[in-house]
Amino acid sequence: MATSSNTVTPDSPNSRSSLTEWLDYMQQIHVSAIDMGLSRVLPVAEYLGVVQSAKDDAYVFTVAGTNGKGSTTAIISAMCQAAGYKTALYQSPHLSCFNERVRIDGEMVSDQTLIEAFSKVENARLKCELTLSFFEMTTLAALLIFSEADCAVWVLEVGLGGRLDVVNIIDPDMAVITNISIDHVDWLGDNVEQIGAEKAGILRDDITLIYGAAEMPASVQQLINTHNAACYQVEQDFSYRVQDAQTWQYSNASVTLQLPRPALSLMNTANALSAVLASSLKVGIAAIERALQTVKLAGRFDYRDIENRHWLFDVAHNEQGVNFLLGQLLPLWQHHLERQLSQQIDNESINQINLQPATIKMLFSMLGDKDIEMVVQRLTDANLPITDWFIAEIDYPRAASIEQLQTTLAVYIDDANIHASANLAQATRAVINVSQPQDLIVVCGSFHTIGEALSMLDVQEGS
Fold it and tell me: How far from chain centre, in Å, is Cα 361?
């Protein structure tokens, strides 16, 4: 196939010496940013040998779903690594730097490792006379890195859907679908049956599926039957419940475990644990406990103290994500108030306590093709003292304009409580200047919102 006339003319792969140059180049070489389908990427993958390498040498977990993929893959990876397996983890998108997407044993790979992989993928692409999208190029590079590093376990997060996502060129040994709800309707369909069929496209004959939602679309069950796949579903085949602030209980037909509570969602943790326990890997209870005590993921209900302010970062950008955020935020807010009062009592006599109430400030922006009104409505309807909203346009082609954000917010919030800035960096500084040390700043709406705020605060992902 000839190279499209709508793409840039490639120069020598050796002419790009920095990671930034490679990332900029790969965003230009294909006619569209999202181009689903495997027909172009498979020949390049086969030329590189990554498909056969995964089949012969690695145990592969593939995780699809609408929400929770990042947390689920992080937990699976942490458990396998704690058990002594050399573990590869591929996630997307990133928050602060591209290297976050490609990890081996928890560590981001270097710029040089990525550059060398990009060069090899580009050479293979040119040999095959094909164009590839940015996501296809970068995913192939990650798979090549894992192959060359002889990783024993690959944990792969699907980017979009499942059936036609480039990650699906690799046959999984274990499939996970975290949940299914309406999102990415332009590519996946506008109902859960269509979306379910796309996400269940990661299934293969006779493998195991962990299904992390109580309700299953008929389209998913049909594909389970077609592939003769074993399926373990939450609330039917495994369950979990909170015991106290430090522990939780996991149960399936074979075991009941009392485990330390991780910093991530218990729902996603239970799905990840089910996948590890159902796999052929040898992962003991001690390794599971070590992983749960240390695993974390930036931007997923991520509570931090920065610049004498309390921050909560969460990438919630659709209904299910916002519902989860609110379910976690309400008890966190009560804990936050109790902590503030305790600190004041420790530091001052009871008669000198600053009685100015703590409030919540929102630092918010979204992509224009998301349901901004639903997210705003859910947040404003919650029983939370959100007093001010700080908004700006994300530095991304699909970003909602400042006018779009203001118009939507104005339906639910007084104009005096909406503070617009030229960019996320300025909005982040503005919320610091207006807030008080006892307040909680919630940053949400998109991966890009979190990433730009963390960048302004000069916080590296994973710190």
Answer: 24
φ, ψ (nearest 5 deg) of residue 174 = -140, 130
Do residues 195 and 182 lie in contact, with contact meaning Cβ atoms separated by under 8 Å?
Answer: yes
CA distance linking residue 166 with residue 139, whole number of Å: 7
Contact present, 76 and 61 (Cβ < 8 Å): yes
Confidence band of 300 (pLDDT split at 50, 70, 90): confident
- How many whole angstroms separate alpha carbon 90 and alpha carbon 77? 10
Assess contact for 136 and 166: CB atoms under 8 A. Answer: yes
**Edge to edge, what strands does the sheet with 87-90 contain?**
107-108, 102-104, 87-90, 153-157, 59-64, 174-177, 208-211, 230-233
> Residue 5 has what pLDDT?
35
Distance CA 292, CA 247 (A): 11
Q: CA-to-CA distance for 383 and 326, rounded, in angstroms? A: 9
If 0-12 CB within 10 Å is exposed, 13-18 middle and 19+ buried, where does residue 426 land? middle
Which CATH number is 13-294 given? 3.40.1190.10
Extents of the domains making up the chain: 13-294, 302-456
Helix or strand run (H / E) with residue 424: helix 424-434
How many Å apart are CA 373 and CA 409, to the nearest integer? Answer: 8
| 317 in Cβ contact with 116 (< 8 Å) | no
Cβ neighbours around 280 below 10 Å, total? 8
Q: How far apart, in whole angstroms, are the C-alpha atoms of residue 401 and residue 393?
A: 6
Pairwise CA distance, residues 61 & 279, whole Å: 9
Mean pLDDT of 149-165: 93
Domain 302-456 -> CATH class: alpha beta
Report pTM: 0.84
Q: Identify the bridge partners of residue 363 per DSSP, sorted by sequence position.
A: 390, 443
pLDDT in tens, 392-435: 999 988 899 999 999 999 999 999 999 999 999 999 999 999 99
Q: pLDDT over 90 for what percent of the chain?
A: 72
- The candidate with the shortest Cα–Cα distance to 362, out of 371, 375, 374, 352, is 375
